[in-house]
């Protein structure tokens, strides 16, 4: 059962379509990462879910309630902002207490001096204090409760922001690039912590990031957004191995995927160097196609061998692996190959080499970016003759 | 020994040369400040201990005689009191109104520039010229203000002509003049508040605009409010043009204010020594107010 769903969310600003019909469903306790290049609409989508912006059309459901007409305050969602948005004049403890105080105390009870005289106020305040402390202890920030945000480090502020969001058991948890203001080491550490917190709280989470490694490493499912469209929503492994669209393939993967322009003949066969692929049973007909192959499925051969002739442009040494940049003879595209340092030993810039692509891992994309089925011709032939 | 000392002395020379350049670069500003701020202040303090009168060639030091006279001077005490009343009215009212108008203008993008300009006009206009307009507005017979009050059967007072109301009349003009200035400062302060704080407040369950104001706007405006308060107090204590053009301290010394009294003593009665003593008191009041404000409020409005 989906606990949270978006249907056909559309939004435009001043005639510019920012979101072009985004739909998404989250299961109970699921962690979904919304990833995409900047300007793809992911933050706008998050603000719409939060109720801070309103969609032009579409439906937002949490549980079985339609939310799009409710204000942010009524939605029972929690959000962690990129800048953390802590109230600088309040201590960490007071910051964490704000969402509780706003919901449990009346306006009168929140007044200084007068509030304390009203019946029941003391009881509720003690309650809030207890919850704040419990939350702080579980995030290991109880020693910071009396400090103001200005006296805390970035990592500490980020935890306070998390605590403020989690303290009142929201039904959906939204995070807008919460790690982008941390330094690299802390960021990797904080990833693990957020995933851990999410597992403990079990609240469905929508996590916006532009960092694909964050998305792939943290999320149960990754939603890739490009130019206002949600192109693919799938498990990280599927997103990487089996992208449904050329833009997804292009955006996900570090180093980037190799994309090579090619042609499909009338029989649905694509020939590239010595490689022959068929896109059957997809439509026949002569069109342009793009071949995609991840750098780890490109192998180095000596000069004159392999399917493609190329010349080494430069090498990037990354410790456990080496990225070889090689310019293809003929079409002039630069291919990336991810190889072990052993395989790259002795390579120098300018050297002529041969490249092979693992035919089982070559993807085909149509001109409009759609993924096409692809299989090595020999394999297909074998199957048709057998069948 | 010399080998070791050499690098240190080289560093020393470089440091000294840098310091010399720094002083050289700062000297024009230092010179101007000495000439136009420090020296006149010292001159005023010194003159305050003399019986110097303009036109006489010589003067003698009289010690604290001027200050002793000030304490028993009924005009001076009256003018101190009037200035206090004027400041106590104009400062809070113009701050509250300025903030209110800034909030209204900020919350509605339509006509923002228009209203900002309209409210800022009094700041840009010449108060001496506008005083004539106010004289007409406040006129007991033909003035629109009293005509308006008469519509509701309220007999309007002789605003600037009666000793019981003149300080309030002047206060209204003072407020009219400073609201626009305060508004512009508050507008600048409002635009500096991070939008994400408002978003966070909304997500945290803040529904009413009063709560939003209490949780975000007011605390975040702290530094602006402190600055606006400081400027407003200084401007109120310095009230002079309206008094000079409209009431001349009257009727019956009911609108005697500090600057007016100092002006009278110094430039009409030519008792420069006595006026200087008043000026020293005037400066001391301002300095004490500023120190108090920054001592007690500064730490409460800056959070980092």
Topology of this structure?
The complex is a heterodimer of chains A (387) and B (304).
Chain A: E1 2-13, E2 16-27, E3 31-35, H1 42-50, E4 57-62, E5 65-66, E6 77-80, H2 92-104, H3 114-117, H4 121-138, H5 154-166, E7 172-176, H6 184-201, E8 205-209, H7 212-218, E9 221-226, E10 229-234, H8 236-241, H9 246-251, E11 258-264, E12 269-272, E13 275-278, E14 287-293, E15 298-301, E16 308-317, E17 322-328, E18 334-339, H10 341-344, E19 352-357, E20 363-365, E21 371-372, E22 375-376, H11 377-386
Parallel strand pairs in A: 3-8, 3-9, 6-7, 7-8
Antiparallel strand pairs in A: 1-2, 1-4, 4-5, 9-10, 11-14, 12-13, 13-22, 14-20, 15-19, 16-17, 16-19, 17-18, 20-21
Chain B: H1 2-47, H2 65-72, H3 74-107, H4 112-124, H5 127-137, H6 144-151, H7 166-191, H8 195-203, H9 209-220, H10 222-237, H11 241-247, H12 258-268, H13 272-301
Helix pairs in contact in B: 1-13, 3-7, 3-10, 4-7, 5-11, 7-10, 10-13, 12-13
Domain count of chain A, please report it. 2
Fill in the CATH topology of chain B. Answer: MetI-like fold
Unreliable parts of chain B? none
Question: Any idea what the CATH superfamily of chain B is called?
Answer: MetI-like
**Which secondary-structure class do the elements of chain A indicate?**
alpha+beta
Instruction: Please give the CATH architecture of chain B.
Output: Orthogonal Bundle
The greatest interface here is:
A-B, 30 and 23 residues
Helix content of chain A: 25-40%
- Name the CATH class of chain B: Mainly Alpha
Total domain units of chain B: 1
Order of helices and strands of chain B: HHHHHHHHHHHHH
**Contiguous helical run count of chain A:** 11
Count of helix runs of chain B: 13
Main sheet specs of chain A: 6 strands, mixed
Structural class of chain B: mainly alpha
Give the proportion of residues in helices of chain B: over 70%
């Amino acid at each position: 059962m989906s606990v949270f769903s978006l249907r056909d969310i559309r939004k435009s600003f001043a005639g510019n379509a920012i979101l072009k019909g985004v739909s998404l469903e989250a299961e109970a306790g699921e962690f979904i990462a919304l990833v995409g290049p900047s300007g793809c609409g992911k933050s706008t989508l998050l603000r719409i879910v939060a109720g801070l912006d309103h969609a032009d059309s579409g439906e937002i459901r949490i549980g079985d309630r339609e939310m799009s007409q409710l204000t942010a305050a009524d939605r029972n969602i929690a959000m962690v902002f990129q800048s953390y948005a802590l109230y600088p004049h309040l201590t960490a403890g007071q910051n964490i207490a704000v969402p509780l105080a706003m919901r449990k105390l009346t306006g009168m009870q929140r007044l200084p001096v007068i509030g304390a005289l009203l019946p029941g106020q003391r009881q509720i305040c003690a309650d809030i204090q207890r919850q704040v402390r419990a939350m702080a202890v579980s995030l290991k920030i109880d020693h910071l409760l009396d400090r103001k945000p200005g006296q805390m480090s970035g990592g500490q502020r980020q935890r306070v922001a998390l605590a403020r969001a989690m303290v009142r058991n929201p039904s959906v948890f939204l995070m807008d690039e919460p790690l982008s203001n941390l330094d690299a080491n802390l960021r990797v550490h904080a990833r693990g912590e957020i995933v851990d917190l999410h597992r403990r709280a079990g609240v469905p989470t929508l996590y916006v990031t532009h960092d694909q490694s964050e998305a792939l490493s943290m999320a149960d499912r990754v939603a890739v957004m490009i130019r206002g469209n949600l192109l693919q929503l799938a498990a990280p492994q599927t997103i990487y191995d089996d992208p449904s669209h050329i833009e997804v393939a292009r955006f996900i993967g570090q180093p980037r995927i190799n994309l090579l322009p090619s042609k499909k003949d009338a029989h649905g066969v694509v020939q590239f160097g010595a490689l022959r692929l068929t896109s059957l049973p997809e439509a026949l007909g002569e069109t342009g196609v793009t071949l995609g192959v991840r750098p780890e499925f490109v192998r180095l051969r000596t000069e004159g061998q392999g399917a493609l002739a190329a010349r080494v442009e430069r090498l990037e040494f990354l410790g456990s692996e080496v990225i070889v940049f090689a310019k293809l003879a003929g079409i002039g595209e630069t291919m990336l190959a991810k190889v072990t340092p052993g395989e790259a030993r002795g390579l120098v810039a300018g050297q002529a080499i041969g490249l092979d692509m693992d035919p089982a891992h070559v993807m085909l994309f149509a001109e409009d970016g759609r993924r096409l089925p692809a299989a090595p011709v020999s394999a297909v032939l074998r199957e048709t003759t057998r069948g | 020994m010399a080998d070791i000392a050499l690098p240190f002395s080289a560093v020393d020379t470089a440091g000294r040369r840098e310091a010399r350049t720094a002083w050289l670069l700062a000297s024009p500003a230092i010179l101007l400040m000495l000439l136009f701020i420090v020296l006149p202040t010292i001159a005023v303090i010194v003159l305050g201990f003399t019986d110097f009168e303009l036109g006489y060639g010589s003067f003698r030091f009289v010690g604290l005689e001027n200050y002793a006279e000030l304490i028993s001077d009924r005009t001076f005490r009256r003018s101190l009191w009037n200035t206090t009343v004027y400041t106590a009215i104009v400062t809070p009212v113009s701050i509250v109104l300025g903030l209110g108008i800034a909030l209204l203008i900020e919350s509605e993008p339509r006509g923002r520039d228009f209203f900002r300009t309209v409210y800022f006009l009094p700041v840009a206009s010449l108060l001496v010229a506008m005083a004539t307009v106010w004289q007409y507005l406040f006129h007991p017979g033909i003035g629109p203000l009293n005509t308006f009050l008469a519509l509701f059967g309220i007999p309007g007072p002789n605003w600037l002509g009666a000793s019981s109301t003149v300080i309030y009349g002047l206060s209204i003009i003072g407020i009219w003049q400073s609201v626009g200035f305060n508004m512009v400062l508050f507008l600048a302060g409002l635009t500096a508040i991070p939008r994400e704080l408002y978003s966070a407040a909304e997500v945290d369950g803040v529904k009413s605009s009063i709560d939003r104001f209490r949780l975000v706007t007011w605390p975040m405006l702290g530094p602006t409010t402190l600055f606006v308060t400081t400027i407003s107090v200084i401007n109120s204590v310095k009230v002079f043009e309206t008094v000079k053009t409209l009431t001349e301290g009257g009727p019956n010394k009911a609108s005697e204010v500090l600057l007016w009294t100092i002006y009278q003593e110094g430039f009409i009665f030519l008792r420069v020594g006595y006026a200087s003593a008043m000026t020293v008191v005037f400066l001391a009041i301002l300095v004490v107010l500023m120190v108090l404000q920054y001592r007690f409020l500064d730490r409460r409005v800056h959070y980092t």
